[in-house]
Design goal:
Elements lengths: L5 H14 L4 H17 L4 H15 L7 H18 L4 H13 L4 H14 L4 H13 L3 H14 L4 H11 L1
Helix pairs in contact: 1-2, 1-3, 2-3, 3-4, 3-5, 4-5, 5-6, 5-7, 6-7, 7-8, 7-9, 8-9
Length: 169
C-alpha cells in the first residue's frame, strides 16, 4: 500500500471535523475539504465516501431544481468509493441516503445499509441509520433492536442514544 500525502490526510481530517457539527454551512465546508482530499488522492475511498454523504446532506438544503443532478453525483461518488474499497461503511450510508430520500426506495436503501454492515458490522453510524430507516418503514421491533445494537456497540457516542430515543418515540 502506498503512502497518502499529508495534505490529503489533513483535508480529510478537517472535513470530518466540519461535518461532525451537522450544520449546512459546516457541511459545505466539509464538502470543500473532502473534494480537496479526493483531488489529491483519487484512489482513496474514505474521503470520497464522506464527500458523497456530505453532498447528499447539503443537497437537501440546496436548490430543489438541482436535486436530481446532485443525487446522481452522490450516487456516482458512493458507488466509486465502494468500488475502490468495499470496506468503507460511509459509502453505503451515502448511497442509501440517495435511495431513500431521492428515489424513495426504502427496500433498496435497507439492503444497501445491510451491505454496509457486512463491510463493518460494528459501525454504529450505519446501524443507527438502518434503525431510523426501519422505523420510518414501520418495522419498529427490528428498528429498536438495531438502535440498541448501535448504542451497545458505541455506548460513549451520544448520537447512538439519540437514535434509540428517536426510534422509540
Amino acid at each position: 500500500s502506498r503512502q497518502l500525502t499529508a495534505e490529503a490526510q489533513e483535508a480529510f481530517m478537517c472535513g470530518l471535523v466540519e461535518v461532525s457539527t451537522v450544520s449546512n454551512a459546516r457541511m459545505l465546508e466539509g464538502v470543500r475539504l473532502f473534494e480537496r482530499a479526493v483531488t489529491l488522492e483519487p484512489a482513496w475511498a474514505e474521503p470520497l465516501a464522506y464527500l458523497a454523504y456530505a453532498q447528499q446532506y447539503t443537497s437537501e438544503f440546496g436548490d430543489p431544481a438541482l436535486r436530481d443532478e446532485r443525487a446522481e453525483v452522490v450516487r456516482a461518488n458512493a458507488l466509486r468509493a465502494i468500488q475502490l474499497d468495499p470496506r468503507v461503511p460511509m459509502s453505503y450510508t451515502a448511497l442509501a441516503s440517495v435511495q431513500a430520500y431521492h428515489d424513495w426506495d426504502f427496500q433498496g436503501a435497507e439492503a444497501t445499509l445491510k451491505q454496509g454492515l457486512t463491510a463493518l458490522p460494528a459501525d454504529g453510524f450505519v446501524r443507527g441509520q438502518l434503525a431510523l430507516l426501519l422505523a420510518a418503514a414501520g418495522s419498529l421491533e427490528e428498528a429498536i433492536r438495531e438502535a440498541e445494537r448501535s448504542r451497545d456497540g458505541e455506548p460513549l457516542a451520544p448520537e447512538r442514544h439519540v437514535n434509540l430515543g428517536m426510534v422509540r418515540y
